[in-house]
């Protein structure tokens, strides 16, 4: 059994805490930590 891998699409994500824009340039299963506030919650295209 392999668990499904959720990947985030390439695009622009906005930190829900401070509004910092983070750009994802390649498929990833983990969004980067916000450079401004250290948060890891973003609004953007769904995985
Ligand atoms: Zn932030």
What does the model show?
By secondary structure, the protein is mainly β. It has one domain. It contains no helices and three strands. It has strands at 11-15, 21-24, 42-43. It has a three-stranded antiparallel β-sheet, with no helix packed on it. A hairpin with a 5-residue loop joins strand 1 (11-15) and strand 2 (21-24). The protein is elongated. The mean pLDDT is 88. Bound molecules: zinc ion. Zinc ion binds at residues 15, 17-18, 20, 34, 36-37, 39. Zinc ion is lined by residues 15, 17-18, 20, 34, 36-37, 39.
Helical/strand content category: mainly beta
The molecules bound to the chains, other than polymers, are:
zinc ion
Strand order of the largest sheet: 2-1-3
Largest sheet: 3 strands, antiparallel
Give me the number of helical elements: 0
Oligomer: single chain
Strand content of the residues, in percent?
Answer: 15-25%
Query: What's the alpha carbon Rg, rounded to whole Å?
Result: 11 Å
Domain module count: 1
Give the overall average pLDDT.
88
Number of strands: 3
Question: How much helix is in the residues?
Answer: under 10%
Q: Write down the secondary-structure element order.
A: EEE
Poorly predicted spans: none
User: What is the molecular shape?
Assistant: elongated
Q: What is the CA-CA span between the terminal residues?
A: 21 Å
């Amino acid at each position: 059994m392999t668990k499904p891998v959720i990947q985030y699409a390439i695009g622009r994500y906005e930190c829900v805490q401070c509004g910092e824009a983070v750009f994802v340039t390649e498929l990833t299963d983990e969004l980067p930590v916000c450079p401004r506030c250290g948060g890891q919650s973003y609004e953007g295209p769904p995985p």
